[in-house]
Amino acid sequence: MSETNPKLFLFFGKPASVKSTLAKKLGQVDGTVVVAEDEWLAALFGDELVAISDYVRCSKKLCDIMGSHIVSLLKAGTSVVLDYPANTPTACAWIGGIARSAGVIGEFHYFDLPDEVCKARPRERNQSGRHPFQLSEEQFDRLSSHFTAPTDEEGFLVIVQGPN
Asked: Which molecular-function annotations from GO does this UniProt entry contain (predicted)?
């Protein structure tokens, strides 16, 4: 049996800041799985997700069950690309608990992009139908107003991603 050092990859950024694009790329490495919140939410709760409050409720349910599963994957030597938004102190605390339980340090990719760049992408994505959820500019603004940038105290290795 080979010795592995699994990693936990996580992301902070406004909607449509290409978090999922990087998640898919990182997930192509052998011994790595992507756990994508949007895909799970769409499959399990798609018909229930109408308002942001629905997202909050359903996301909490998903986090409650996925946390121990992600810890198990990491302890088994599998790296995990956690394609969940780590945009609030609550989300960072949940992810930090996973990292501590698994004995890994999270590699935190921080997307620092202007609102104008991020707002243009959902318009294109909404028209193309290539994403399971539609995002209006009003929803973008409401979601973004709750974001808190990562801090050193959270214990993650922070990698800042610029405009792509």
From this structure: kinase activity
Give the CATH number, domain containing residue 104.
Answer: 3.40.50.300
The pLDDT tens digits for 112-140 are 888 787 777 766 766 676 666 676 778 77
Higher-confidence residue of 44 and 85: namely 44
Residue type, 147: F
Rounded distance, CA 18 to CA 1, Å? Answer: 36
The count of structural domains within the chain is 1
Query: Within 10 A of 73 (CB to CB), how many other CB atoms are there?
Result: 20
Six-digit token string for 94: 């949940």
For residue 10, give every residue at least 6 positions away whose Cβ sits within 8 Å of its Cβ, in sequence order, or none: 82, 84, 86, 95, 106, 107, 108, 109, 156
